[in-house]
Amino acid sequence: MAEVVLAGRELTKLYRMGEVEVLALRGVDLELREGELVVLLGASGSGKSTLLNILGGLDRASSGRVQYRDQDLSDADEDELTLYRRRHVGFVFQFYNLIPSLTAKENVALVTDIVDDPLDPAEALSLVGLGQRLDHFPSQMSGGEQQRVAIARAIAKRPDLLLCDEPTGALDFQTGVLVLEVLERVNRELGTSTAVITHNLPIAAMADRVVTLADGRVQGEVVHTQRAKAADIRW
Amino acid sequence: MRALDKKLLRDFAHLKGQALTIALVVAAGIGVFVGFQSVYGSLLYSRDVYYERYRFADVFANVERAPEQLKSRIEAIPGVSQVYTRLRYPARFLVADLPQPPVGLLASLPDDGAPPLNALHLVTGRLPTAGQGEALVLASFAEKRGLVLGEPLVAIVDGNACTFRITGTVLSPEFVYPMGAGEILPDDERFLVLWAPRTELAAMLKLTGAFNDLAVALQPLAHQSQVLADLDQLLAPYGGRGAYNRALQPSNNVLDGELYQLQTLALAVPMVFLAVAAFLLNVVLSRLVHLQRSQIAALKAVGYSNLQVGLHYLELVSVMVLVGSVLGIAFGAWFGRALHDLYGQFFRFPVQLYHLEGRLILTAVGVSLAAGVLGAMVAVRAVVQLPPAEAMRPAAPLAYRRSILERLGITGWVSPAFRMVTRELTRRPLRTSLSVLGIALSVGVLIIGRFNADLTNGLMDLLFQRMWREDLLVAFAGPRPERAIRELGHLPGVIRAEGLRVVPVRMRVGPRHRDVVLYGYQEDGELRRPVSLSGVPLTLPERGALVTQNLLEILQVSPGEEVEIELREGSYAKKTLLIAGPIEDAAGLAGHLRADTLAQLLGEEPLVSLGLLTVASRDTQDLERRLQAMPQVLSVSAHATLVDRFEKQSAESIRVMTLFATIFAMTIAVGVVYNNARVALSLRERDLASLRVIGMTRREISAILLGELGIQVILALPVGFWIGRAMARGISATVDPERFRFPMVIETQTYAFAAIVTLAAGLASGLLVRRKLDRLDLIAVLKTRE
Ligand SMILES: Nc1ncnc2c1ncn2[C@@H]1O[C@H](COP(=O)(O)OP(=O)(O)OP(=O)(O)O)[C@@H](O)[C@H]1O
Ligand SMILES: [Mg+2]
Description:
The complex is a heterodimer of chains A (235) and B (786). Chain A is an alpha/beta fold and 235 residues long. Helices cover 28% and strands 29% of the residues of chain A. In chain A, helix 3 (104-112) packs across helix 4 (121-127), helix 4 crosses helix 5 and helix 5 runs parallel beside helix 6. In chain B, strand 16 and strand 17 form a beta hairpin. Chain B has 786 residues and is an alpha+beta fold. Chain B has a 6-stranded mixed beta barrel with strand order 3-4-9-6-8-7. Chain B has a 6-stranded mixed barrel with strand order 13-14-18-15-17-16. Among the domains of chain B are: 59-253, no CATH class; 428-468 and 641-786, no CATH class; 472-619, no CATH class. The A-B interface holds A 49, 52-53, 56, 58-59, 78-79, 82-83, 85-87, 89-91, 93-95, 97-102, 106-107, 109-111, 113-115, 139, 153-154, 157, 165 and B 2-4, 6-7, 10-11, 14, 294-295, 297-306, 308, 387-389, 391-392, 394, 780, 784-786. The site of adenosine-5'-triphosphate has 12 residues of chain A, from strand 1, strand 2 and helix 1.
């Protein structure tokens, strides 16, 4: 079996808003292995985003441990988390979060500017099929294209981990598939360990492993021996 | 170029309207700072170089007549480094076509032409040769009169005429601000100093082997007050009239006052602008940060550190500030030059160069950067504190509440548009108050700009309408018996003649003293009365004097107490004077008493120093000429001429100040209103677009946004009036209260002017935003998620 790249152990997360406390995670264990593609499923509010944020170093758990290879991130401070994200993690957000004042290429350059040995921005954009749209601004692109720019931005640093929160959430079916194909290709060709959150059950078919969360806990886990091709997925 | 830098430039370009208005406010602040400071620096430099090169003395003294031998004893006073004995004598001069002859001084020039102290700067011509009846004249007078070298000039000294031939014109460090004793305004045409070789002058004044004036240079660490005391003691037996230092030297005193005012303004005014700029940066940047929340979060999520992202926004601020700085420095150099020229009309230096120091520019840029960073700090802190996980979440809707007005049920009948306006205004009370304050500041600055004019008008009204009501003022060559007034009254064309006794004295309480004037008023006098700042004539007490409030404070005495006075003319006797009460009078330091009280105090018959006349016709030329021909008359001045001169002199500075203040205030008003409007627009673009989509007209949505601005402007007016008053008070406080005190009047026109200009600026900003609103691209706004 491949090596564990990222591991979360007994993670809990408590959100406090004034009087109200929400226990978003109630002791979650999750591993992500080298080159693996994991899909996270679960009802709205089950804690998927919270978990992904903690694993990606965007947020800190209330208790439990996070380990990236042999680096313990549980007690990492702000600067260490920043470095962790900068060096190892690529994010794809549901709302793309592109900088509207920068072109596609510049949005990717934003990341390649600050990491060692990145892909060329144009190359990263070619990988997601946008080699012809380098100089377009986000406002001149469709949602799916914007999401692919976001993926190019995430992979341009040759990340060890690619974390995607509902990457197809704002897209129609056809564009969604296009985006999934890109993720699949990156996972295959670059060997990037990938976690994808989704609400679309059929997407789970392309995963090596499917983890289902419910009410802040891992409810179940299914391992696929055979991954479906992204192009064959329908929903 | 790095992608983040590109974002910086594009953000800047996107914000250009706002960036420009902010830059302009910064520019105004830096402009005022650089302008005032550079003029201050230039004048200070001109003065210091002048004083140093021309060896301006440290201590001055005046004496009736002292033997030249006393010089060595003065030199022996510890701390004295050099002594220059000389002759000074008041004189009037006959100039052909001037009905009102200039008054001034005859001064001695060492026979070798080189004074050891207070050296002269030869502007044109040459030094006089001793024994030839030649003399030098003050350049300000010569230039004003178009005096030709070689022309004769007649001086009347104690009634005797002596003729001098002018060989050159000069500047003197003692007359940087050439103004005759007892005048309130300088008049180059009517004040002159003539320097003639000492031997000749001594023979003429019967002062051979003696001196009656003294300039002393001190050693660097000399104990000045001790030297003054020692000098007074040495000179006392010879009719010493009290030594004084540079601070009380008339020309230097005025220069000091002016420099102090410049220095104060140079600090206070730019503060207002930089505060506004900081506030605007805060508003605009906070909005920007709010709009770019998800971008900021994304930057952090992909690995930019807090420092990098924070700096990114600070750089944006710096670019705006730097653009403002460049404009401001150019503008400040222009403003400074204009101001410097204005000063050049009053102050005479041999070399008067306007210069702008690199250090000053650096300071200006540094200070404005600091202000900018300070203003941006709150927003940048928000940037730093924003958790990167925010990138994963959609923007939270803004929290609104029913406004206070609504909760009070006041707005039940109004339109939803108005409700939106009030909710927006009350949702962020701090922001709203700050906006109101910002606009109010511009109202205040406008008031200040015009206040100058009000001040002058108020002072003129007080001086020329309420205090001095005569048509002609006749100065006698010395005190005359009251009979002289009756004689004046019999001249043809004279309707009324009154006398006024004016006695220069030194008022002293312990070590504190000032040279002041005592006025003795005729009992039934109508033309001159003591008048308070509010224009109310005061009744004189039976005993004692009404004394300038400010003087009482300087001497630290209260009504009911007595002060020592030393006459500065005639006998130089010492007396004691009862202070009956304070008076808030407008100009100079003075004591006002009844003529008979004053006569009693001085132990003299009732005498008069001035004759005050009202005349039948406006054309007083003949009468003036007649008066002038009378031997006992020193000078005649027409009220109308004085008013005229006053108006002319103040008009120029009023014009300059009003112009600049208006420019500055417009900058602030537009800066605040426009930026607020743009911020409101961009924060609510989506709401407004949605309203348009559901069927509201452009006019209706404009009303919502512009209504908000309108209310802010309206609220700002009264606040601004108040601020303007306070600032006006502050500015009047920079004027030397020993010279002038002002009636604090701000005319209704000034308030109206400020209100109109602010409303106009508001309207202009509103229209600019309205254009944006009209072009609101509904689809684009609703499609994009910022
Ligand atoms: N910043 C926050 N403050 C308070 N509560 C939060 C916060 N973020 C998430 N929660 C709560 O934590 C719980 C888990 O939220 P999370 O966003 O992880 O759910 P999710 O599984 O991603 O849901 P969805 O599918 O709707 O995105 C929810 O109940 C949510 O209300
Ligand atoms: Mg989620």
